Amino acid sequence: MIRRLEVFLNRKIRVNFKNYYQRQDVQKLENKNFVLISRNCWGGQVYQWLNLPYNTPFVGLFLFGPCYMKLLSNFDEYMNMNLQFREVSKYPDAYNNHPIGLLGDIEIHFQHYKTKQEAKSKWNRRKARMLKYDKSNYFFSICDRRGVTNSDIEEFHKLKYKNKISFSFNKIPSLTNLQHIKFIQDLSKKKGAPPNGRKRFKLTFLYFDLVHYLNTGNVLRTRFKQ
């Protein structure tokens, strides 16, 4: 309970002094050409925080766990496919009130886009921008939401990508490396599904130095550790 209260209070400090912390991070950032591959809005929040253009098409969207893991297992092949669309998701608990993209058998849910045309235009433009950068500067992330299991996160860390980081609210005993962040449930967390990408981004700074990670590829833990 004490640690949960600490998380809550530190969140409040970050909110109240947001502009100060943001200016500090923008000034410290040296690697401005990084590419974030994120299955939800966490990645887009990073670019917005650092006042950078989106160097990735993975913005304003989400993927269910099985599709995301399949995408990562054969990333180059899927990213070379043309984006198509379907009307109804293959996932029973999905909402079908936004454009649902397809890369082969991979579903991409463009939840923050109004039309297929908008989703496809921005996807293609940002994908072209992403492909200009070396893969050594790609940063992959995953979190325990929308069908992502502990086993998926374990498999994620076995993938041969240079820069990887994972987030969960459950302890995964097999993962003791610095690249796995276990969040503490703070007092503002509601019961039910784990927080979405936006809310999770706000917790990020309590656990590791984001800018140091983007500059060096190394995870430097901050106040709260596992």
TrEMBL record:
Kindly give the InterPro entries that the UniProt entry links to this protein. CAC2185-like_sf, DUF1919
Q: Which domain of life is it from?
A: Bacteria
Which Pfam families does this entry report, sorted A to Z? DUF1919
The name under which this protein is listed is: DUF1919 domain-containing protein
